[in-house]
Amino acid sequence: MKPLTRLTAVAAPLLLDNIDTDTIIPSREIRSTGKTGLAAGLFAGWRYRSPAGREPEPSFVLNRQRYAQAHILLAGSNFGCGSSREHAVWALAEYGIRVVVAPSFAPIFFGNCLRNGVLPAVIPGATIRELAQAIEADPQGNPLTVDVRAQSVALPDGRSWSFPLEAEPKAMLTEGLDAIDLTLRLRARIDAFLQRDRAQRPWIYLGAER
Amino acid sequence: MLAIDRIFLHERTGAVALGSLAASGRHVADPRRAFCVMDHIVDTRPGRGDRTLMPQGQAFISETRRAALEAGLTLYDVNDPDQGIMHVISPELGIVLPGCTLVAPDSHTCTQGAFGALAWGIGSSDAEHALATGTLRVRRPRSLRVLISGHLAAGVTAKDLGLALIARHGAGGAKGCAIEFAGEAVRALDMEARMTLCNLASEFSAMTALIAPDEVALAYLQGRRYAPEGESWSQAEAHWRRLASDPGACFDEELSLDASATEPMVSWGVSPAESAAVTGVVPPTAAQRPLAYMGLRAGQALRGIPIDAAFIGSCTNSRVSDLRRAAALLKGRHVAPAVAAICVPGSSAVKRAAEAEGLDLIFQSAGFEWRESGCSMCFYAGGESFRPGSRVISSTNRNFEGRQGPGVRTHIASPETVAASAIAGALADPRELLS
Ligand code: SF4
């Protein structure tokens, strides 16, 4: 996983509530059993003029020149609701979005972000609107700086806001750690637990003698 | 860190998790407790094989099959007699059990919490983690009790309870909590209705939902293939009977709902939260964006809005009791002339059970297509869909923009509301057909 510690980049506002993962990447855009080749399908329903085509819809925020090179997305509440498809995060990451700032996230999407080096930063809606307003006149000249270790989002004028992030996901993001590796190191303890559990709940362990 | 007792994969996201696992040289920790089914993109037209209308769909099916068999998982393949939507077949086979942890890379895994299991949807990376280690790193969720009092009137269902709750508190209303559904109205639901209710927790932004296991749950599970038997059942039962919240238990959040005051609901917008009683109107304060997509006006009466198609199916409402209730309204009637109507049983077992009761004949003589089981047109993966701009009344769980196809306008509702609307050719109140 690509580590994420600090990022200064253009932020694009998409301040709608309940943006679902079908919208982030429509199912029809998931064409292979891999994790790549998804960026072109990001927000396909809003980003292109027709469902089958690739002609950009000029009014969509990510198609506007003023938000070119956006690596940060400002969004509304309950972002990433709906389908569990991790493709939504893979598409965002492949497109170049490393941080999504929203008042709240759907739980599965939140976890998926952390597994893929994308920061879901929870910041109150009023603050996000203030951020969007502050950068609106000149998004390119007003990049946001996100510092994962300091848990802060800052404007170039020095105003800054903090977001919550627990120690473990923080370490995973900043060090680009692989969760499976970390867990497999605990194999002996896991096996000991399973042995005790098997005695207590034998019906759970299928295929073993019951 | 939680031990994961059961893992379920499907062909839409299974191959990516298994493929990534294999590519990293890891293997499935305990394949005997990992299952896989072909449900999402399989064809549901009669006489199906691997071919599917979704472009590249066949690759998802064949790669998932190969990866699942290589990893030693139990696979319910396209034409297996036990095939069906995972949240329908897992209970049917007794794979989900009270008190177990069950995960799947599918957001409606919360459906299975109806049995008092901790069952929740995860992404592919976490699925890979669960497969490889038999565990998941999870943060203990905050708890939310939803107390549902009163009694459902005839023609009002668990689906309406779920939509009413979400409409009142918003699609983010559960704020990532684990929900316990409790109260006399919940106790009075059968297992299939409880699954419908828990299914909608996904649309409420809950981590999951559960219902304390009781006689109803135990009676449902006894004798199922993977449920314990004999001595083992007695031991399990004693354990399961303790899985209830203490009488004075404190929850982080509490919500309540009166079942008696709940009416048949139908969505008017592009989020399940944008729902109202079918006897009501599109809220005068509705935002412009959903109205433009749905082709509706603020203040417009819902009843009487003409529809082009009707769909009964999905992990929310495709079990045999759902089909029975819809069939009761369809019997001796016919869908309106221009309405394309489709019924997709939730599992092959549901299909057989429905056929044994003659429900297939009722659906077919009413003008419904009768399909093989699967997710079918609950979502659009590039294959079969309704016409752009068409208006569909659907027993599914998501009315997102494009969910059932580009430009398709989905109204979600109970199977009886779908049936009544199909007959009327317009959004309709099922209570008007009850004799
Ligand atoms: S029926 Fe629909 S909601 Fe349920 S698992 Fe299938 S695609 Fe998902």
Features:
heterodimer, A: 7-stranded mixed sheet, 8 helices, B: 435 residues, 5-stranded parallel sheet, 30% helix
Q: How would you describe the overall organization of this protein?
A:
The complex is a heterodimer of chains A (210) and B (435). By secondary structure, chain A is α/β, with parallel strands linked by helices. Helix content of chain A is 31%, strand content 16%. Chain A has 8 helices and 7 strands; from the N terminus they run βααβαβαβαβββααα. Chain A has helices at residues 21-24, 44-47, 87-95, 107-114, 125-136, 167-175, 179-184, 187-200, and strands at residues 6-14, 70-75, 99-102, 119-122, 144-147, 152-154, 160-162. In chain A, strands 4-3-2-1-5-6-7 form a 7-stranded mixed sheet. The longest helix of chain A has 14 residues, at 187-200. Chain A is globular, with a radius of gyration of 20 Å. With 435 residues, chain B is of the alpha/beta class. Chain B has helices at 14-23, 57-71, 86-92, 124-133, 158-169, 184-187, 191-199, 215-221, 230-240, 288-294, 320-330, 348-356, 359-365, 415-424; strands spanning 2-3, 6-10, 34-37, 74-76, 101-104, 118-121, 135-136, 143-149, 178-182, 208-210, 253-258, 265-267, 275-277, 309-312, 340-343, 368-370, 391-394, 409-412. In chain B, the strands form 5 sheets. A 5-stranded parallel sheet of chain B has the order 4-3-2-5-6, with helices on one face. In chain B, α5 (158-169) packs parallel to α7 (191-199) and α11 runs parallel beside α14. The longest helix of chain B has 15 residues, at 57-71. Chain B is globular and about 55 Å long. The N and C termini of chain B lie far apart (53 Å). Chains A and B meet through α4, α7 and α8 of A and α1, α2, α4 and α9 of B. The site of iron/sulfur cluster has 11 residues of chain B, from loops.
Précis, in short:
The complex is a heterodimer of chains A (210) and B (435). Chain A is an alpha/beta fold and 210 residues long.
Given as residue ranges, the uncertain stretches of chain A (5+ residues, pLDDT < 50) are none
Structural class of chain B: alpha/beta
Give the H and E element order of chain A: EHHEHEHEHEEEHHH
Largest two-chain interface: A-B, 57 and 74 residues
Q: N-to-C terminal Cα separation of chain A, in Å?
A: 41 Å
Q: What's the overall average pLDDT of chain A, rounded?
A: 95
Percent strand of chain A: 15-25%
Number of helices of chain B: 14
Helix content of chain B: 25-40%
Low-confidence stretches of chain B: none
- Computed CA radius of gyration of chain A, to the nearest angstrom: 20 Å
- Total strands of chain A: 7
Which kinds of small molecule does this entry bind, naming each only once?
iron/sulfur cluster
| Total helical segments of chain A | 8
**Overall average pLDDT of chain B:** 97
What's the assembly state of these chains?
heterodimer
For the largest beta-sheet of chain A, the strand count, sense and barrel status come to: 7 strands, mixed
